[in-house]
Specification:
With 216 residues, this protein is of the alpha+beta class. Helices cover 19% and strands 33% of the residues. It is built from three helices and 14 strands. The strands form three sheets. Strands 3, 4, 7, 8, 9 and 10 form a six-stranded antiparallel β-sheet that branches. Strand 1 and strand 2 form a beta hairpin.
């Protein structure tokens, strides 16, 4: 436990160090843009790490756990790499700077999967339209605490998706129950799987009827 706390402390200090460096750089030049999505479908990743010796990136578009690609360092201390031939989809990634794994300091979209954190982005296109924020009305997601005698737990949390206009309607709705896999939790459905976005788009397109979704 103490070793885990120390690793978390080192990770937090390292991210703070990167953010301070990013802020100092921004005061002199344009902010670092990462990820940069090109019209061609290519994606450029950048990170400011002036004193680093090696920087690599690992992402969900790569084949095999532990795959990575090295970044090249510019004269301004910014490391970069452009990934080509990517399909429109939802991706997550992390940098490794001199052996320390970190999220992208220039990307505010950070997701958590149990003990791991990743930076995320959506490469737009027809194949990823169902993952985009819906142009129509959106449902709401609530967190609900409840007792679970079967698990001998006084408090257990689930997330509940309510369809658009639920509170203004007197209709009865079907209920979809979804359970996370081993190692996951209820947050993964919305933070990692974007289940609420998908259902919003399916309902607004008429491909699914309005429903309640219970995520545990």
């Amino acid at each position: 436990m103490e070793k885990m706390k120390e690793l978390i402390r080192v990770h937090i200090l390292f991210v703070l160090f990167l953010l301070v460096g990013q802020t100092a750089y921004a005061q002199q030049q344009e902010p670092v843009v990462s990820p940069e999505l090109h019209e061609s479908g290519d994606v450029t990743f950048r990170i400011l790490a002036t004193e680093a010796d090696t920087v690599s990136i690992s992402g969900s578009w790569m084949e095999g756990w532990g795959s990575f690609e090295l970044l090249e360092k510019g004269e301004d201390g910014i490391w970069s790499v452009t990934i080509t031939d990517m399909e429109p989809a939802y991706y997550n990634y992390t940098f490794t700077v001199d052996g320390v794994r970190t999220v992208d300091p220039s990307n505010p979209w950070v997701i958590r999967d149990v003990r791991n954190t990743f930076s995320a982005f959506i490469l737009p296109g027809e194949e990823s339209e169902h993952l985009q924020l819906s142009d129509g009305p959106n449902g709401t997601v609530q967190e609900v605490w409840y007792p679970s005698p079967s698990l001998s737990m006084d408090q257990r949390r689930m997330k509940v998706y309510l369809p658009p206009n639920y509170h203004e309607s007197n209709a009865s709705y079907p209920v979809l129950y979804i359970l996370h896999g081993a190692g996951g939790d209820e947050n993964a459905w919305t933070e990692l799987g974007l289940a609420n976005r998908i259902l919003d788009n399916l309902i607004n397109s008429g491909e699914a009827e309005p429903m309640i979704m219970v995520m545990t």
